[in-house]
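hiii so um. not sure if this is the right channel but i have a protein structure encoded as tokens and i wanna go backwards to a sequence. like what aa goes where. can anyone help
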């Protein structure tokens, strides 16, 4: 019963202190659904469903503090190798969750990942959600499904090569002009600010391939709670920890 008062106090302090630097873009690794399910004696699908139910509250918390971009990692390329009895229900849960977010028209949804690796039905639903919310004037939400950082960089380089091949640029010319910005312009998140803060739940302290390129200068916050148990107070603590840090941007 004390948590709502504690959360309200944290929000008031952050809103009063204009000197606090709040993140513009937050990446969230929604980790721990399966372990949460085992801990409560339920099957894996129940864990994924509980995790999906926590997405909308998270986006509401992000709106509260004025975050502009959120990237949610829902399914990695490695996860696509899971057995069909687990993967198929998970893909359905993800698609249903994205459909629900789109129906609310509160956020602009943008799928990021290798959609060509997904079943056609899943990819079509993700694309439809993006189209349905393209005109929404709200927070941008990147939905990372079938996402892997190495795959993203590979796709970016491939796209860059195709672009310059179409222009007739030789390999020698491309080697002379290519730089960091050229590759960044071909990432799934092109045109977006890099994440200021990356949050990972479940106690794991590793990136696992999440936003490898974009997170080079990000701050990281690792939370012990499994994703279905991640609360508003946990989120606010992550934001407060970020605001208290002196960012060195890799130096």
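sure thing!! here u go:
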């Amino acid at each position: 019963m004390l948590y709502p008062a504690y959360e309200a106090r944290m929000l008031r302090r952050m809103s009063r202190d204009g000197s606090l630097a709040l993140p513009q873009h937050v990446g969230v690794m929604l980790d721990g659904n399966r372990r949460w399910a085992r801990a409560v004696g339920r099957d894996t699908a129940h864990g994924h469903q509980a995790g999906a139910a926590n997405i909308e509250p998270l986006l509401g918390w992000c709106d509260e503090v004025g975050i502009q971009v959120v990237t949610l990692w829902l399914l990695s390329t490695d996860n696509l190798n899971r057995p069909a009895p687990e993967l198929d229900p998970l893909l359905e849960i993800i698609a249903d969750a994205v459909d629900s977010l789109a129906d609310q028209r509160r956020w602009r949804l943008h799928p990021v990942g290798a959609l060509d690796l997904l079943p056609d039905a899943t990819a079509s639903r993700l694309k439809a959600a993006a189209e349905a919310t393209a005109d929404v004037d709200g927070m941008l939400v990147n939905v990372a499904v079938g996402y892997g950082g190495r795959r993203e960089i590979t796709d970016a380089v491939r796209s860059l090569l195709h672009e310059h091949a179409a222009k007739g640029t030789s390999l020698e010319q491309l080697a002379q002009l290519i730089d960091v910005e050229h590759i960044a312009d071909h990432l799934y998140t092109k045109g977006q600010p890099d994440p200021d803060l990356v949050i990972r739940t479940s106690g794991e302290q590793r990136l696992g391939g999440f936003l490898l390129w974009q997170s080079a200068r990000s701050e990281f916050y690792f939370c012990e709670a499994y994703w279905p148990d991640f609360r508003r107070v946990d989120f606010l603590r992550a934001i407060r920890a970020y605001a208290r840090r002196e960012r060195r941007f890799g130096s």
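oh and The longest strand covers residues 69-76.
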